[in-house]
Design a protein that fits this description.
The chain is mainly α. It is 39% helix and 0% strand. The protein is flat, with a radius of gyration of 18 Å.
C-alpha cells in the first residue's frame, strides 16, 4: 500500500513506486554531479562543492540585502520593549 506524498519539498521514487525523501548523500551526489558539469572552481582550483545549507545562507543574504527583516527570514521573534 502506498500512502500520500510526504510533506517535503524534494521527493523521488527510487524504486518506481514509493515516494521517499532522498538521503543527504543523494542530495550531495546530485549537487556534485551538477557542479561537475561546469568549469567552476574554488580559489584553490578544486571543483566547487555546495551543500543544502549553503543555499539557505545565499537565500538569507539576498533577502536581507533586498530589505527583508532577519526575524522574518528565520522565524525568530523580537522581544517587545513594553
Amino acid at each position: 500500500m502506498v500512502g500520500p506524498p510526504l510533506l517535503h519539498l524534494f521527493q523521488h521514487k527510487p524504486n518506481g513506486w514509493k515516494w521517499e525523501v532522498p538521503r543527504d548523500t543523494t542530495i550531495y551526489k546530485l549537487l556534485d554531479q551538477a557542479l561537475g558539469h561546469t568549469s567552476l572552481t574554488a580559489a584553490d582550483n578544486e571543483p566547487l562543492r555546495y551543500r543544502p545549507h549553503d543555499f539557505r545562507r545565499m537565500f538569507a543574504t539576498e533577502a536581507v540585502t533586498g530589505g527583508l527583516p532577519v526575524h522574518i527570514i528565520f522565524g525568530q521573534t523580537i522581544p517587545s520593549s513594553a
